[in-house]
């Protein structure tokens, strides 16, 4: 009797829309699969790729970004159960992604508006992306905890570099494949597996980062990220891992606020 | 009769000195710390004189809070916090309305003291600083019983005791920007005014007494950098809000690392003021002048990088220079003064160093020839042309009446050059074409974009920066968020 | 008459590229200059200067020779008790009364000015306008205040606006030509600036805001825009064109505000009746009252000075 030999997947990092091995050549193993142990240089490459994608992504209409995130949710839904993630978690992750897909064209009216200034000017405030957002995902739940931070950042028009769950990176790397077959443009999301402290430290120290979202729940790392953020006055949000749809969405405004800038414009009203 | 005709030709006309009277100003000889609703001597801090930078005369002695004073101040604030937070919101509003009214009532005195302590022209303290300070209290007073509408119908609670540090360029106005939203949200505040300009904050303390604000709700703790450093690091501070230099902001952010204390920062800038060839040039020139010479350029959002489209560069520079020569520099108390005194000897030195660097690096300097008073700290309005983007005067915040002119050829180049800065506080756009104005505004990485105007402020309009100009917003509903915790 | 002069065509190109004017910005700046504090000696000198720049005006259907003679006497010696107050610059009347004014002002140095060209609406034929001008000049007018054809301007016919000014200019001889834009009818600051340039290019010696018969006159914003146009024109061509604020300047404060606008836009060398005029019928006595107050410290009353 012939036993079928499994076609084993080689997990890869997702940087700039490409599936790549770590430039360091290092790898670790989880659930019987090898996955790359990214290096500081991979972080650098990821931020560079993200920066390149930032302008065009922010320039898309909110409607278009919403469509793309919705398409990403479709792709995730259709992937079936993956390794390291329960069906419930995957479904919740899809729902959260859907929730934030719907936010893209509602952030401006909810967080911004017209300012009734006491002078002959039209003044209005609009939320805008802060740019490149670094995300430190929690160990558990690996997929939902990641989507809960990616969703608001992407909906807000940002591009992301995320450090995945250290002990359960496969759901995050699988997500890359789902996003890779959706319409998310190259470089908008970059996903790195490896040692969290090493990668998060490199990410937090990168000067071309507008904000860092830290959901890892590692107090020592949090303090280190704060210190690094001070070097270039980065915005920082620390949060607990989201373990349910409600967790990831009830404080949507706080999450969106942490990755957007409010821009106020003044224009004279006259002739 | 023909002699009457001859008298015509001999008429020369200039403005006579028009100093605002200081008669109604009652300054104490010394001011203590305002703690627990009363002025008290410092326990481990001393008294330091605050001077008039236009004359170098002593105005009063002011207590500096030492480390123990900081602790005592926070204790008194903590004691007052629960009651203030539990107060019926409309009652909180009433206190703030009272403060707003009292600022209006005492506006002349506040304007004169602001000008004497800080050196800014009376025209500005009278027409900008003081009325806007009152407007901020009015605006946020109205929020006190409507907080949930400001945060999208969420249930909120105050953070507790907030530590606030304000700069010397708009001493009263910045105190109002900090205190009004904090108090409206139900927090109590410990505010440290700037070392060189404590007086109007202390007058505001008197106003708090007059308004019968409960003791401990507002604490005014004058002092220097050491007092501020102690305040932000002290136990019992639930939130820190700082306006000042990026260097100090960075220190504070690092000091709070790992504490989880919420922080908002409003820091420096090197804001671009972009003049396109199709602009209403005469108004653009006014906007340039207002952008950089308002308050001697001691403005975090000053339009210090002037980007002019090459095709109109010569014309704009000629008009600007002509306009600059008409600026009236001198006694800040004179109602016709446009440019007052530099705030301190230290700041004057910083300006001089950077201007010297500009000359050394090869930029062409033009400084208005005007007689500078013998005493006090002065710097005449200065224009640099032939500036390269790499020059220090095109990169570093000068915080003085010095504008650096750069040129651009296309809209894309203007945007690129404007965004080529570590800062992102404000920007100006001058064009008569609406669609261009809005596209450039959307492409600029800056928190405030003034189209065909500059340096306008309003309590309803959010203010704050991108990048190293800080985070968090002041003004409007966005200004409530930093002072609230969302419960659900 | 056709406009074919190449230099004219060249500057019309300039007009098409005219910078626009931002209303909010102009009014902010004009209001800011209204806050200059003019006290003590500055107030005294400013008032004397304002009087010396006055075109003391009467333009009523009820004007008679008697009324004009009284006005001339007042203009020559506004305040007999205060000899340091100078004579006004000119007396401004309708063409039919020019001869009377000229005679009354003989030897005083005060000029005789006349409105002409179908003042104030200008809705008469070009021939009628020219005849009106010729009459005033023949009667001895030193200065002619003409109105532009707002009808042509608003219809976009800049050429006709200029042709009329040129034609009038040809008939004024040695008399100075002041061109009234009637800014209240132009509808925008852009138009005020545009019309200012048309008038200057067509040879105006002065440009003047208003007839005094429209809803508004020499508002601070209008004055500022015209002064800026004059400044830029002088810069470009070297020719000095004067400015006359007329209409609505009825208080000392308003008159001094206009002088501040001149001083800070064009400079001190413009503070002379050769270059700046204020057209008014009622401001003189307020100037005198305010001047007397600076001397005596007492607030005055209307009866302190003669009506005319």
Identify the overall geometry of chain A. Answer: globular
Neighbour order of strands in the largest sheet of chain A: 9-8-7-10-11
The major beta sheet of chain C can be summarized as:
8 strands, parallel, barrel
Largest interface: A-B, 42 and 51 residues
| Gross CATH architecture of chain A | 3-Layer(aba) Sandwich
Q: What integer is the average pLDDT of chain A?
A: 96
Helicity range of chain A: 40-55%
**SSE series of chain C:** HHHEHEHEHEHHEHEHEHEH
CATH level 4 superfamily of chain C? Aldolase class I
**CATH superfamily membership of chain A:** Aldehyde Dehydrogenase, Chain A, domain 1
Determine the structural class of chain C based on helices, strands and strand pairing: alpha/beta
Put simply, the count of helices of chain A is 10
Oligomer: heterotrimer
Sheet with most strands of chain A: 5 strands, parallel
CATH level 1 name of chain A: Alpha Beta
CATH top level label of chain C:
Alpha Beta
Indicate the proportion of strand residues of chain A: 15-25%
Structural class call of chain A reads alpha/beta
Cα end-to-end separation of chain A:
87 Å
> What is the helix/strand order of chain A?
EEEEHHHHEEEHEHEHEHEHHE
Overall radius of gyration of chain A: 19 Å
Structural features, described:
The complex is a heterotrimer of chains A (271), B (488) and C (308). By secondary structure, chain A is an alpha/beta fold. Chain A has 10 helices and 12 strands. Chain A has a single domain (13-268), classed as 3-Layer(aba) Sandwich (Aldehyde Dehydrogenase, Chain A, domain 1), CATH 3.40.605. The longest helix of chain A is centred in the first third of the chain and has 20 residues, at 40-59. By secondary structure, chain B is of the alpha/beta class. Chain B has 2 domains: 30-267 and 469-486, Aldehyde Dehydrogenase, Chain A, domain 1, CATH 3.40.605; 272-462, Aldehyde Dehydrogenase, Chain A, domain 2 (3-Layer(aba) Sandwich). Chain B contains 16 helices and 22 strands. Chain B has helices at residues 2-9, 67-86, 89-105, 107-118, 122-143, 147-150, 171-184, 199-210, 225-233, 246-255, 281-293, 313-324, 345-360, 392-395, 411-419, 434-443, and strands at residues 30-31, 33-35, 38-40, 47-51, 58-63, 156-158, 161-165, 188-192, 218-220, 239-243, 263-266, 272-275, 305-309, 364-367, 382-385, 402-408, 423-424, 426-430, 448-451, 466-467, 470-471, 484-486. In chain B, the strands form 6 sheets. Chain B has a 7-stranded mixed β-sheet with strand order 14-15-16-13-12-18-19, sandwiched between helices. The mean pLDDT of chain B is 96. With 308 residues, chain C is α/β, with parallel strands linked by helices. Chain C has one domain: Aldolase class I (TIM Barrel, Alpha-Beta Barrel). Chain C has an 8-stranded parallel barrel, surrounded by 8 helices. In chain C, helix 11 (252-265) links the parallel strand 7 (242-246) and strand 8 (276-280). In chain C, helix 3 (40-52) runs antiparallel to helix 12 (283-296). The longest helix of chain C is centred in the C-terminal third of the chain and has 18 residues, at 220-237. The model of chain C has no long low-confidence stretch (mean pLDDT 93). Chains in contact: A-B, A-C, B-C. At the B-C interface, helix 1 and helix 11 of B face helix 2, helix 3 and helix 11 of C. Strand 12 of chain A pairs parallel with strand 19 (448-451) of chain B, so a sheet runs across the interface.
